[in-house]
Amino acid sequence: KKANIGVVGLAVMGSNLARNLAHHGNTVAVFNRTYARTETLMKEHGTEGDFIPAKTIEEFVASLSKPRTAIIMVKAGAPTDAMIEALADAMEPGDIIVDGGNSFYKDTIRREKAIRARGLHFVGCGISGGEEGALNGPSMMPGGTEESWKTLGPILKSIAAVAEGEPCVTHIGTDGAGHFVKMVHNGIEYADMQLIGESYDLLRRGLGMTPQQIGDVFDEWNKGDLNSYLVEITSEVLHQVDAKTGKPFVDIVVDKAGMKGTGTWTVQTALSLAVPVTGIAEAVFSRGLSGMSEQRAENARTPLTGPNGDLGIDDADKAAFVEAVRQALYASKIVAYAQGFDEIQAGAKEYGWKIDLGAVARIWRGGCIIRAKFLNRISEAYDNVAAGKQEAFSSLLFDDYFTKAVESAQEAWREVVAKAALAGIPVPAFSSSLSYYDGLRSKRLPAALIQGQRDFFGAHTYGRVDQPGAFHTLWSGDRSEIQTA
Ligand code: 6PG
C-alpha cells in the first residue's frame, strides 16, 4: 500500500499533523532527518492509523502514490530550503511539495517559481492553531496552483477544523497568497493579544482588580460579541495560580513578550504597501518596548515621573468602567481586523492574487488562534458584497454592521483612552485605533500643512482644492504660485 500524503519534519507540529491525517483515513508517509523521532512517533502513536515510516528521503518519496504530495514541517528559512531541494531532487514532475511552516511570503513566491520551473508544484500553506490545532483541526491557508489544490484540497479538508459545518481551509490564491494571508493572520493575532493585554492592565492597575476577578470578567466577555479563543485562554491564564509560590501565575512571569517575526513582517509589508495597520504596528512595538531591558532598568533606578496608573474610580462606578473597557476592546478590535483585511486586499492587488475575503474570514472562524464569533459578521459583509446584496465598501468600518458597532462603542472607547492617558496607563493599541478611526472620519487632515512644509523646503509641490494640477509657491522669492503640472 502507498501513502496518499507524506509529512517531513516530525517535531510537535509535524507529528500532530501526521497523526491528524492518519486519524482521518489518510495513509501517511513520515520522515524526519533523525530517524529516532520517527521511531518515537511510531512507538507512541503508530497504532492510531496507517503510517509508513521512512528512513531516507528516497524511501519516503518511493512510498508515496502519484501525484506524490508531501508537507514539510521544518523550521522556516534555510532548513525549509534544504528540505525542498532534497524533495524536489527525489520527486518527479507533477508532484506536490507543501511548505506548512510560517514562511515569509516572498520566500514562497521565489520557491514556487523555482519549483514550477522544474515541473513540480510548490504550495506555501499557512497553518494556524498551534499544536492542538495541528492534531485536532487547524485552519489552513494554502497558496499554489489550482491544479495542486485539486489533489491537496480533499486531503486538507479531511483534517481541517470545522466551523458552522464548513472545513476551515480554502485555496487562497496562487504562489505566496497563502503565506501572505497567514502572515496577516499573525499580525491580527498580535493586535488582538495587545488589546486584551491593555484591557487587563486597565482593570488591574487602573481599578485594582485581582487576576482572578479579571479572569472572571473575561469569562463574561467571552459570552458576547468578544467570544473568541484568545479571550477564552486569557481567562485560563489569569485564573492560573503558581504552584511554587501560590501567587497568580501572571505575576511570576517576566513581563517581556517574545516574538518570532511574523508580526514584524506584517508591519514591514504593510509599510511597503502603504497600508496603515496601526493596531498591529503598536502591538509589535509594544512587544519591543517590553524587551528594552536597559531602558527599563534605568527607569527602575531613576523613574520617569508621571501618574501611578490608578484611575481613581469609585467602587460604585467600577462595573461601568469595566463595561467601557469591553466596548473599547471591541471597537479597537474591529479597527485591527479592518486594517488586516486592508493589507490582504493591498497584497492581492500588488501580487495579482484573487483573494475571496469572505472565504478568508470563514476559514478563520475555527481552528486558528484568532478564531472569533465576530468573524461571522466579517464574512457576511464580504459575502454580501460578492453576491451583489450590498454595495462594496473600502474598509470594513464602512460596512453597516461595523459602522453601527463602532458608533455605539465609541463614547466608552473615548472615555477609556482619555482616562488611561490621565492615569498614566499605556494603551497604544486602543488609542492608535481610535486615532485611525478619527483620521478616517476627518473631513480635513493636517496633511495639507505637511504638503505646505514639503513644498517650502523641497519644492515637492501640492494640489489645490479648487483646481486640478500640481503647484509650487516661490517661498524664497515673491511667494507667488506657479503651476508645475
Ligand atoms: C498560529 C500561531 C503560530 C505561532 C505564532 C507565534 O497561527 O498557530 O500564529 O503560527 O504560535 O507564530 O508567534 P510569536 O512567537 O511571534 O508570538
UniProtKB/TrEMBL annotation:
Annotated residues for binding of NADP(+): G9, L10, A11, V12, M13, G14, N32, R33, T34, V74, K75, A76, N102
InterPro entries hit by this protein: 6-PGluconate_DH-like_C_sf, 6PGD_dom2, 6PGDH_C, 6PGDH_Gnd/GntZ, 6PGDH_NADP-bd, NAD(P)-bd_dom_sf, Pgluconate_DH
Catalytic activity as recorded in UniProt: 6-phospho-D-gluconate + NADP(+) = D-ribulose 5-phosphate + CO2 + NADPH
Keywords annotated in UniProt: Gluconate utilization, NADP, Oxidoreductase, Pentose shunt
Domain annotation 6-phosphogluconate dehydrogenase C-terminal: ranges: 178-476
Binding-site residues, substrate: N102, S128, G129, G130, H185, N186, Y190, K260, R287, R454, H460
Role played: Catalyzes the oxidative decarboxylation of 6-phosphogluconate to ribulose 5-phosphate and CO(2), with concomitant reduction of NADP to NADPH.
NCBIfam families: gnd, PRK09287.1
Name the UniProt record assigns to this protein: 6-phosphogluconate dehydrogenase, decarboxylating
Organism whose genome encodes this protein: Pseudoscardovia suis
